[in-house]
């Protein structure tokens, strides 16, 4: 088996521990993995932004925007948005290299277990793409990430086609109409899954629908904190 990024051969050590208790297969070599920088140190407990503050100014703004109670409990992100991970995501997400997503599988699974294991009866819901965007990319990266997680997955949201979020300013993202449609109500806690947390506007659009429909708590889990 070769590294999915640099294509160097992976040397898989076999011992009694990983034969008896198999773990997620590593799909990236040690050198490439070291270039994936985990978020560490002090971070905002609401959005995972690296900061010395307990709650960053952005999250205080969102709290005020939602009249004192944000629609998401918190977001947890795994990696920093470095140029290396940006290159991987661009090839995976925009150039249709589906297999590259498996680079993140083991770490995304592990951090989920550490962060969300205490939330009982949680359901993972991927942030959807519009049908037009699916035709362009052939798969939804958020759906792939959700499939890595050890909880029930439900595709209960659809999305109206519009301009790419990456082309919008922060204010345009925040003030845009809600692009999502909810097709099923849930009483369970929901963990929304997406690849990148930038302003948090997209995730909060989805969370707002879920909360209005009776969802108890909404959390978000993202690969990268932009």
Describe this protein with a few key phrases.
Rossmann fold, two-stranded antiparallel ribbon, single chain, alpha/beta, 226 residues, 2 domains, 15% strand, five-stranded parallel beta sheet
Distance between the termini: 31 Å
The CATH architecture of the largest domain can be named as 3-Layer(aba) Sandwich
CATH class of the largest domain: Alpha Beta
Give me the CATH fold name of the largest domain.
Answer: Rossmann fold
SSE topology:
Blueprint: H1 16-20, H2 30-34, H3 57-65, E1 75-80, H4 83-94, H5 105-116, E2 123-126, H6 131-137, H7 141-147, E3 152-153, E4 157-159, H8 170-175, E5 180-182, E6 190-197, H9 201-212, E7 218-225
Parallel strand pairs: 1-7, 2-3, 2-6, 6-7
Antiparallel strand pairs: 4-5
